[in-house]
């Protein structure tokens, strides 16, 4: 691939400069965010609850023997008030193995815990992307900029989940049974594992499935040993409660990318919106089955699996779009080779709009997420359209059209990775 007449060594050097500049900016954002979590008064700001606060509060409750309280919105609200003096609707619905993980993090001050978690998960994400994209990594990061900034600021687990999916796809392509490890760890967010799970199932690699089952069973067993069987009743209650909140429109739907969020925010009653989502989810699952059993080049199947997995659950947020970066890493060389500069700029703008829309609306309204007060919060949440899902569908369709010739040819247009073992076509 040629960049303005630069030689390959010059291209690599420029990519490294861009990458290190990006990393330095990310580290600066992490440093400021750590202070905002731990001691915002040092920056002349008041405490504002964001996602990692929920991680730390849930872990604190679990660590002091009150794990069931983390899974009840009202007692979680009381804990927020007790520990931070602030309240926000952040119900805890993660499976108990992830609760056990944040239990360990919460033994540290929140600023330190945030730095360790976000740097480790972001480093993992970068390593996975680089293994797939090679010299195209800066381009992938450019496309995913809003999502990356959102996850860095909030301390969410989007990097961790996307990294696990990417690690699975790398190991799967190498036909390594080690693919079962990241697949099993997806127990922390199973609603995003539909694509990789179907690939393992239809690929009939029983060793991968066996390892995944063992890893998931160990994680579930450790959580049960730590908290007792009562934690599963609490978890079930939390899921039911979250479903009620979702139907009532209490969540910020404009930050969700599901068909349900788009339809409900557009004014459809919750039941009809869920019916529409079910139709969309079945379509996504059908396409996933096709992608998992297709004979097209693996990089295209991997990209489809990443993209389609985002449309299965009604409950996904903008930080989950980090998975899209993994899919893009597989096919960015094809995209660059077949698009003019203006067309690439258009795709970049659309990707930024889709991934940054929710945070933009949150900043404009200064609500972020509603509280438990009721009617006013619902009105604020439903007053904004949920456009991430529709924009994401358009983006994926445009990318698919752009790379269709390469899909039909079934040939690599350029080297996909520095790792020679990943350049072969399956």
Automatic annotation (TrEMBL):
Pfam families in UniProt: GT87
Keyword Transferase appears in the UniProt entry: yes
Top-rank taxon, per record: Bacteria
UniProt KW keywords: Cell membrane, Membrane, Transferase, Transmembrane, Transmembrane helix
Membrane topology reported for the UniProt record: Multi-pass membrane protein
TM helices/strands, residue ranges: 17-39, 108-129, 158-174, 181-202, 208-230, 274-291, 344-364, 384-403
The UniProt record lists the keyword Lyase: no
Entry's localization field: Cell membrane
Protein family: Belongs to the glycosyltransferase 87 family.
Protein name in UniProt: Glycosyltransferase family 87 protein
Organism, as annotated: Erythrobacter fulvus
């Amino acid at each position: 691939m040629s960049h303005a007449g630069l030689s390959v060594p010059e291209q690599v050097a420029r990519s490294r400069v861009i990458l290190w500049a990006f990393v330095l900016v990310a580290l600066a954002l992490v440093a400021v965010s750590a202070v905002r979590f731990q001691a915002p008064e040092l920056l002349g700001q008041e405490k504002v609850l964001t996602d990692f606060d929920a991680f730390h509060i849930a872990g604190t409750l679990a660590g002091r023997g009150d794990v069931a309280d983390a899974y009840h919105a009202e007692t979680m609200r009381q804990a927020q008030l007790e520990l931070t003096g602030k309240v926000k609707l952040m119900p805890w619905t993660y499976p108990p193995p992830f609760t056990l993980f944040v239990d360990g993090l919460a033994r540290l001050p929140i600023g330190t815990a945030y730095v360790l978690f976000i740097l480790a998960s972001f480093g993992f994400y970068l390593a996975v992307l680089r293994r797939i994209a090679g010299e195209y990594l800066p381009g992938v990061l450019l496309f995913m900029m809003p999502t990356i900034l959102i996850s860095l600021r909030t301390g969410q687990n989007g990097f961790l989940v996307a990294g696990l999916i990417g690690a699975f796809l790398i190991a799967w392509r190498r036909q390594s049974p080690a693919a079962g490890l990241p697949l099993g760890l997806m127990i922390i967010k199973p609603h995003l594992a539909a694509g990789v799970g179907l690939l393992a199932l239809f690929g009939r690699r029983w060793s991968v499935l066996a390892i995944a089952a063992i890893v998931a069973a160990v994680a579930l067993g450790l959580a049960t040993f730590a908290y007792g069987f009562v934690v599963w009743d609490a978890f079930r209650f939390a899921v039911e409660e979250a479903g009620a909140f979702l139907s009532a429109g209490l969540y910020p739907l404009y930050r969700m990318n599901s068909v349900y969020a788009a339809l409900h925010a557009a004014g459809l009653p919750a039941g009809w919106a869920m019916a529409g989502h079910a139709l969309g989810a079945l379509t996504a699952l059908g396409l996933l089955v096709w992608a998992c059993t297709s004979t097209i080049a693996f990089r295209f199947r991997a990209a489809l699996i990443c993209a389609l997995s985002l449309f299965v659950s009604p409950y996904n947020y903008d930080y989950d779009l980090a998975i899209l970066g993994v899919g893009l890493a597989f096919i960015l060389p094809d995209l660059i080779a077949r698009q003019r500069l203006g067309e690439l700029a258009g795709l970049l703008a659309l990707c930024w709009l889709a991934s940054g829309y929710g945070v933009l609306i949150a900043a404009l309204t200064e609500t972020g997420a509603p509280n438990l007060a009721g009617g006013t919060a619902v009105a604020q949440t439903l007053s904004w359209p949920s456009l991430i899902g529709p924009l994401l569908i358009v983006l994926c369709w445009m990318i698919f059209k752009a790379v269709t010739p390469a899909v039909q040819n079934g040939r690599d247009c350029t080297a996909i990775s520095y790792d020679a073992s990943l350049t072969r076509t399956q």
